[in-house]
Amino acid sequence: MEIILILVGVLVGTLSGFFGIGGGMILIPILMFLGIDIKTAIGISIVQMVFSSLYGSYLNHKKGSLIVGEGIWVGVGGFVGGFMGAYVSNMISPTVLEYTFLALLTFALFRLFSAKPNDDETVKSLNSMVLFSVGVLIGVFAIALGVGGSILLTPILAGFLHYPIKKAVSAGLFFVAFSSVAGLVSHLSAGTIDLEKGLYVAVASLLGVFIGIWLKDKVSSSKHKIYLLIMYVTAMLLLMNKIFLG
Predict the structure, then answer these.
(1) Which parts of the chain span the membrane according to its record (predicted)?
(2) Contact 204, 10 (CB under 8 A)
């Protein structure tokens, strides 16, 4: 099992760096497919997200693709929401979590499909309290489901606020750093994380993150959008297989 977790970690880390996701939206269905229950999978996912998001945000900042200013406000909101979200997950049944996660993936797929890919560097500015409030709401919902929040934030930035897709991807991963750290603290205090399995996946994901960000910088925004859509559809199919076929 350890070898499988390491390979999964490299794969998920690559997807995390390339798509700007924490990795939970891919990791959780894979872990469930391997026979791990959703609440244990959520804990493992959060450990992996902390590692991949912090390292990935550092690399994106070095490359100049991360806009830190506005990201701080939405990130702090995500930290507050993420801390609350861990407790929400303990009050919701696994079945409800699975169906909510499927609905979340469907929403993200729709928003990304309608977003127009572009390489324009111009980014709209928003009121800091609006960003903070958005961060809180996404943080609560995302951490309760074991995903970092970029699954919602990236489509909102690209589909509603017209961020360039690559900038939205970097901002999404930065948001994950805040929400996942908060989620990790609260899950550890609640004793709901399999830390050993989580570390196998998390450490292996660092190599994948490096590869993923390198690949992201090599493709155009239009191709990047196509790859994003393929990734969302794949995650949906994995989850639907688990929910409807067991």
Answers:
(1) 6-34, 41-59, 71-89, 96-114, 134-161, 168-186, 198-215, 227-245
(2) yes
Q: Which of 202, 205, 204 lies closest to 213, judged by CA?
A: 205
Return the SS3 of 136. helix
- The pair of structure tokens assigned to 185 is 């603290």
CA 204 remoteness from chain centre:
17
pLDDT tens digits along 33-85: 888 888 888 889 889 999 999 999 999 888 887 877 777 888 888 888 877 87
Round to whole Å and give the CA distance between 17 and 166. Answer: 11
CB 173 within 8 A of CB 53: yes
What residue spans define the domains of the chain? Answer: 2-245
Distance CA 149, CA 180 (A): 9
pLDDT tens-digit series, residues 4-14: 999 999 999 99
- Single out the residue of 201, 225, 242, 228 nearest to residue 12, CA to CA: 201
Structure tokens at 246: 């067991």
State how far the Cα of 75 lies from the Cα of 221, in Å rounded to an integer. Answer: 24
